[in-house]
Amino acid sequence: MLGFTLTLRQVVFGLLLVFCLTPWASPPLALALGLALAQTVGNPFVARTKVVTSKLLQFSVIGLGFGMNAHAAVRAGQEGLLFTIVSIAGTLLLGYLVGRWLGLERRVVHLISCGTAICGGSAIAAVGPVLGAKDEEMSVALGTVFVLNALALFAFPPIGHALHLSQHQFGLWCAIAIHDTSSVVGAAAAYGNEALEIATTVKLARALWIIPVALGTALVFKQKGVKITIPYFILGFVLAMLVNTYVPAAKPLGPLLVSLAKTGLTATLFFIGAGLSNSVLRIVGLKPYVLGIVLWLSIASASLYVIEHLA
Fold first, then answer.
1. The dihedral formed by the CA atoms of 189, 192, 193 and 199, expressed in degrees to the nearest 10
2. Which of 20, 111, 252, 281 could lock onto 270 through a cystine, CB 3.0 to 4.6 A?
3. Is the pTM of this model over 0.70?
4. Is the pLDDT of residue 203 over 60?
5. What is the C-alpha to C-alpha distance for residues 295 and 177, in angstroms, rounded to an integer?
6. For this UniProt entry, which segments traverse the membrane (predicted)?
């Protein structure tokens, strides 16, 4: 085609990606299509999509900031602060206890616990080098969190509707109980604009806890001279939100940038699903899944109870 040789896998990948860029595609559908691709013909661009996914997610999150009000975001962040502190500390402690009971390697336990407690793959990627984790330990932790994260994107919106959660309640619950920022934003966007605003703000505020948790990890595991990855894209989100709130001339561009950001997020979830191949699922093993499920159900049920009764 036009002088290029294309394989069937590449053609299918391209067609699905193009569809995910259209208004007919939703975040859950994009993730499902990516998963279907990974489990059938496979992803022909695994290495490239891994690189693109992280950057695309960051730019999409920044773009969402152009549709948010700084005053509302501050209120949401303040409300989620206590939930964040208690849930992170509780998840790390529970992870340590359950991990010892299962007989899992200590580094794997800490990585899965951090991924569940803070922000999924981003937290694992930041804490792993501080921990001195091996490649196979990183793969196990990332595989566990990504699989459960994918399930959360499908499960949470129907649960929220069944329980008649308000937009406010659902946004807060998503930010606390879903692992990765991509699925938090995807699930909240499917629920409504208010849920999206609250979920994104609280989740990004939660992501900043990567820094103190990474420092604590270096102390507990007695690691010296380590480099901690700081999620600078959160500053871009805050800046975009401030521009949208205080620069009237920028407001006409807001809807366009938010629309592009949502499209970028949909493509991101397609890439994430396309990366969950059979080999990724097999490398994890049973015990890490047990740990991940116990932590996920614990934080999801406890936070839901508190939100329904207090928020």
1. -60
2. 20
3. yes
4. yes
5. 10
6. 81-102, 108-131, 138-156, 204-221, 228-247, 253-276, 288-307
